[in-house]
């Protein structure tokens, strides 16, 4: 059975019962997708039902005043979305576009929303790439590039578009969404329950707790690090900082690099120790007076021990900055 068939089979058994599922009206699908931008499914459901009851089609929405549209949007937030719906309805009048480029031209519609409508309404072979799809596909195909970069999103989109050819793209896209919500979780995915376990390259190479890599760029007053919990048995590596900010304090090793694999290369060059990345722990933010640290923390296993490794008891004797002390506290539970 193919990946697509397994995913569709899982979806048909486990799919969520949502009011905007299994409908063909592109207008209603469009409304739901705009509402779902930056808002959870649970929060959207009651607003969607009320909005569609009052504005059941393009013409009704176009003929309403913006004040009334806002009133039915009240409480959902990001009111510009409601304005975009109203403006686009007035441009369409009564016929929803059927081509990707025309849907993409609607106000407030990006590639994800256009692809979702093409798939859900018209069953065309488009992959809808949001955070869920990026996570699932990056693990499935062990894509180690940073998903925050446009080139990586394009790579994953190209893979996804090939995945849906010859299959019901709506079931695959909706399947990925529900699958990401129930099984392929951001942290500690339920791999033992995964029907794609045998096909998942991340699982087969023990990278499911590392991928996806999601390192967002920060402004010049901020620094983005890959910060390492480098372990050997029950000890953690801490390096005495010789100068600059936090001088003479003991820090976790960290580098301004884009992935844990780049960290491994830089670490090897500095310390001559080979590492294996075990998992992504969590992302931390620490604000100093004049700058902010964004720390993407990964756990690494060292192949040999050096003098810079300390047990938990020994760590208590060291001066560790708050930024890294809270990471160690989280790691040690």
Written overview of the protein:
The chain is 45% helix and 14% strand. The chain is an alpha+beta fold. The two termini are 41 Å apart. The chain is elongated and about 70 Å long. The chain has two domains: 3-204, Endonuclease III, domain 1, CATH 1.10.340.30; 222-332, Nucleoside Triphosphate Pyrophosphohydrolase, CATH 3.90.79. A hairpin with a 2-residue loop joins strand 1 and strand 2.
Number of domains: 2
Tell me the β content: 5-15%
Structural class: alpha+beta
CATH class of the largest domain: Mainly Alpha
Return the string of H and E elements.
HHHHHHHHHHHHEEEEEHEEEHH
Label the CATH architecture of the largest domain.
Answer: Orthogonal Bundle
CATH fold-level topology of the largest domain = Endonuclease III, domain 1
DSSP helix fraction: 40-55%
Number of strands: 8
* Discrete helix count: 15
Superfamily at the CATH H level of the largest domain? Answer: Hypothetical protein, domain 2
Feature tags:
Nucleoside Triphosphate Pyrophosphohydrolase; six-stranded mixed β-sheet; 15 helices; Endonuclease III, domain 1; two-stranded antiparallel sheet; alpha+beta; 333 residues
Annotate the secondary structure layout:
Blueprint: H1 3-14, H2 26-35, H3 41-54, H4 58-63, H5 66-73, H6 80-92, H7 100-104, H8 111-122, H9 131-140, H10 150-164, H11 169-182, H12 201-204, E1 222-232, E2 235-237, E3 239-240, E4 250-251, E5 254-255, H13 260-271, E6 275-287, E7 292-302, E8 309-310, H14 312-315, H15 322-332
Parallel strand pairs: 1-7
Antiparallel strand pairs: 1-2, 1-5, 2-8, 3-4, 6-7
Helix pairs in contact: 1-11, 2-3, 2-8, 8-11, 9-10, 9-11
């Amino acid at each position: 059975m193919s990946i697509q068939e397994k995913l569709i089979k899982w979806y048909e058994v486990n799919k969520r019962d949502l009011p905007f599922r299994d409908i063909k009206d592109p207008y209603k699908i469009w409304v739901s997708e705009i509402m779902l931008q930056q808002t959870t499914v649970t929060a959207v459901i009651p607003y969607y039902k009320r909005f569609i009851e009052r504005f059941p089609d393009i013409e009704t929405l176009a003929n309403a005043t913006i004040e009334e549209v806002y009133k039915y949007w009240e409480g959902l937030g990001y009111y510009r979305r409601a304005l975009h719906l109203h403006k686009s309805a007035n441009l369409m009048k009564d016929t929803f576009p059927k081509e990707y480029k025309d849907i993409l031209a609607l106000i407030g519609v990006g590639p994800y929303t256009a692809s979702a409508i093409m798939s859900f309404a018209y069953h065309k072979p488009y992959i809808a790439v949001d955070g869920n799809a990026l996570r699932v596909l990056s693990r499935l195909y062990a894509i180690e590039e940073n998903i925050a970069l446009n080139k990586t999103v394009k790579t994953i989109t190209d893979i996804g578009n090939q995945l849906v050819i010859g299959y019901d793209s709506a079931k695959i896209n909706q399947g990925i969404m529900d699958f990401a919500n129930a099984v392929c979780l951001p942290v500690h995915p339920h791999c033992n329950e995964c029907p794609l376990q045998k096909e998942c390259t991340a699982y087969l190479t023990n990278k499911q707790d590392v991928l996806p890599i999601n390192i967002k760029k920060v402004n010049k007053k901020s620094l983005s690090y890959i910060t390492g919990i480098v372990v050997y048995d029950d000890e953690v590596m801490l390096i005495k900082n010789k100068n600059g900010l936090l001088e003479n304090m003991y820090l976790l090793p960290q580098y301004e690099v884009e992935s844990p694999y780049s960290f491994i290369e830089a670490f090897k060059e500095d310390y001559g120790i080979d590492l294996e990345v075990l998992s992504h722990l969590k992302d931390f933010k620490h604000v100093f007076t004049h700058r902010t640290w964004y720390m993407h923390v990964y756990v690494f296993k060292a192949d040999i021990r050096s003098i810079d490794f300390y047990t938990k008891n020994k760590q208590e004797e060291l001066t560790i900055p708050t930024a890294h002390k809270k990471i160690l506290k989280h790691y040690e539970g």
